[in-house]
Design a protein that fits this description.
With 526 residues, this protein is α+β, with helices and mostly antiparallel strands. Helices cover 42% and strands 16% of the residues. The protein has helices at residues 2-6, 28-33, 35-46, 106-110, 119-130, 143-150, 158-178, 199-216, 224-246, 257-266, 270-273, 281-291, 298-313, 316-329, 331-345, 362-367, 369-382, 417-421, 472-489, and strands at residues 17-18, 49-63, 66-70, 85-100, 116-117, 195-198, 383-385, 387-391, 395-398, 404-407, 412-415, 439-440, 443-444, 449-450, 453-454, 490-494, 510-512, 520-525. The strands form six sheets. Strands 1, 2, 3, 4, 5, 8 and 11 form a seven-stranded mixed beta sheet that branches. A three-stranded antiparallel beta sheet has the order 6-18-16. Strand 9 (395-398) and strand 10 (404-407) form a beta hairpin. The longest helix is centred in the middle third of the chain and has 23 residues, at 224-246. The chain starts with a helix and ends with a strand. Residues 122, 154, 311-312, 315-316, 319, 383, 385, 387, 461-464, 467-471, 474-475, 511-512 line the site of protoporphyrin IX containing FE.
Length: 526
């Protein structure tokens, strides 16, 4: 009854309000099951702008009077729970979220820098997820600004050095550990023809380690591979729980997640990081900023570094998987991208890893337009990030030339670009991978239309406006570098009888979706 009485009533002129009839839960279940379909259905019913009440939710189950396990499970898995199992639905605080579904309205929303704030939301979610005190709490004057400034070290001229370093690290990891160098995995591969592997696992081990070495430096050369495997193992465990932590489920309800997070944070304690060599300017600068605050403990500083680890690999690894997966599945695309690479590098047809290692410069990377298109196409198909802003006051939000909508202080304004990425009016056959979709007449294609009007924003895997991902240029570079080396060194095919990889929607709204399960692939040195 309290819930019914406390329910929001729609005010004159406000967008249609969708609250659902499950007390406190609102439309969270529908959203979680298939956010894309949920939003499209509501757009058809209510138009381009509507407000939905959504809470975070989580099922915890108990078996035979004993605490058994805890995890988020999709509603369609509930029937697998045996009769002796009792389960409890836990909810985190709900929010009224106003979705803007028409991409022609996006530019207008982005102009509201002052009234629609990103950092308030980030400052609530990131500390609870990664375990450091909120940056904007007043205890750390100017820290937010200093951190924002440090992001410049991921861009512009600094990218050249980062790209060089990443290239060397990719060569190191790939050649030593996988392609017949000194590493245990590589041994025996050379000369044996085709080898098989799990594609996601492969992308994960190479990109995780090479990205780590590029940003944080080399912790202990002698134990490089085994140390990294342990770090990655813990990281994956944490990452599995990431959507729940972002959904504001308290960490103490998530089984061993707190202990795993503590282990990960300890890895980045200042006294350890001081001994690492070749740390990037970006991470070194962040360490300097954190050192300025006596109010931060060493563990807090380490937690900040851990958060950047998540930001730098959490999306890049699945993005790399999809970029490679689609190419391997479409050999014509793979060959076209490989041909472009040979042309730009002016290399002979085959370039096995026995040859001196290949270095692709930043300048050459920028010339790989077809590869760029292929990577962007895979990002279009796999990204499901939600762009969130919190209204700082009651105000009237101008949507376009004719329309505006009143917004209440504290409400969330959300853009969900996946619906744009999959809109058949903007992208013909949106479900189909077309590696050359973003290239026309030898140049990047930038004109995409909705209702006959040219779109300013048509690809948004990296967010938008003030909160746009500062690592986006580095990310695209490193994915391209990874593809360059693989296409030069290896023949690649899917293993026989592999089912099509499917997107796992459990982290819809949070970035690049993972595949529901790994796929087998075959590779052979060229
Ligand atoms: C933020 C996507 C790689 C560092 C974000 C956001 C998205 C995103 C969607 C939030 C933007 C918003 O809410 O508007 C991606 C994708 C990547 C990627 C798809 C790979 C394909 C990276 C890399 C780094 C990085 C490699 C670092 C080296 C960050 C940071 C933020 C961020 C620090 C927070 C920015 C802030 O607080 O203002 N990223 N990212 N990202 N990303 Fe990335």
């Amino acid at each position: 009854l309290a819930w019914l009485l406390g329910r929001r009533r729609r005010r004159e002129g406000e967008p249609p309000l969708i609250q659902g009839w499950i007390p406190y839960l609102g439309k969270a279940l529908d959203f979680r099951l298939d956010s894309q379909a949920f939003l499209k259905n509501n757009q058809e019913k209510y138009g381009d702008v509507f407000t939905v009440y959504i809470a975070g939710w989580y099922l915890k189950w108990f078996n035979s009077n004993q605490f058994c396990n805890s995890s988020s499970i999709a509603a369609d898995q509930v029937h697998h729970l045996s009769n002796s199992t009792q389960y409890v639905l836990l909810l985190s605080p709900g929010k009224y979220m106003t979705f803007i579904m028409n991409p022609l309205m996006y530019p207008s929303i982005m102009k509201y820098g002052r009234q629609l704030d990103f950092h308030e939301f980030a400052d609530q979610v990131a500390p609870a997820t990664f375990g450091y005190p909120a940056v904007g709490s007043g205890r750390f004057p100017e820290m937010g600004d200093q951190i924002q400034r440090s992001f410049r070290l991921l861009q512009g001229e600094n990218l050249v050095l980062l790209a060089e370093c990443m290239m060397a690290n990719l060569n190191l990891v790939l050649r030593q550990d996988f392609l017949g160098g000194e590493g245990e995995r590589g041994a025996g591969v050379v000369g044996m023809g085709w080898s098989t592997g799990d594609l996601y696992d492969f992308c994960n081990s190479v990109m995780f380690e090479a990205t780590f070495l590029t940003l944080y430096g080399m912790p202990a050369p002698a134990r490089r591979h085994s140390d990294m495997a342990t770090l990655r193992h813990h990281f994956t465990k944490f990452d599995d729980m990431f959507p729940l932590l972002v959904g504001r489920i308290p960490i103490w309800l998530l089984g061993r997640t707190k202990a795993v997070r503590e282990t990960l944070i300890r890895y980045f304690l200042p006294q350890r990081m001081m001994c690492w060599s070749n740390t990037s300017q970006f991470i070194a600068r962040r360490a300097e900023v954190l050192e300025q605050y006596d109010t931060l403990s060493d563990t807090d500083k380490a937690a900040h570094h851990f958060a950047i680890l998540w930001a730098s690999v959490g999306n890049t690894v699945p993005a790399t998987f999809w970029a490679l997966y689609y190419l391997i599945n479409q050999q014509e695309a793979l060959q076209a991208v490989r041909n472009e690479l040979h042309q730009v590098l002016k290399l002979p047809e085959a370039q096995g890893p026995q040859q001196p290692e290949v270095i692709v410069s930043k300048e050459q990377l920028d010339q790989l337009l077809l590869m760029d298109s292929a990577v962007n196409e895979s990002l279009r198909l796999s990204s499901a990030s939600m762009n969130i802003r919190v209204a700082q006051e009651d105000f009237s939000l101008r949507l376009d030339e004719e329309r505006s909508a009143p917004v209440r202080k504290g409400d969330v304004i959300a853009l969900y670009p996946q619906t744009m990425h999959m809109d058949p009016e903007i992208f013909t056959d949106p479900e189909t991978y077309k590696y050359d979709r973003f290239i026309e007449g030898g140049r990047e294609k930038t004109d995409f239309f909705k209702h006959g009007q040219r779109l300013k924003y048509y690809r948004m895997p990296f967010g938008s406006g003030s909160s746009m991902c500062p690592g986006r240029f580095f990310a695209i570079n490193e994915i391209k570098q990874f593809l360059c080396l693989l296409l030069l060194y290896l023949d690649l095919e899917m293993a026989q009888g592999q089912e099509k990889a499917q997107l796992d929607n459990s982290r819809a709204g949070l970035g690049i979706l993972l595949p529901t399960k790994d796929v087998r692939f075959c590779y052979r040195i060229r």
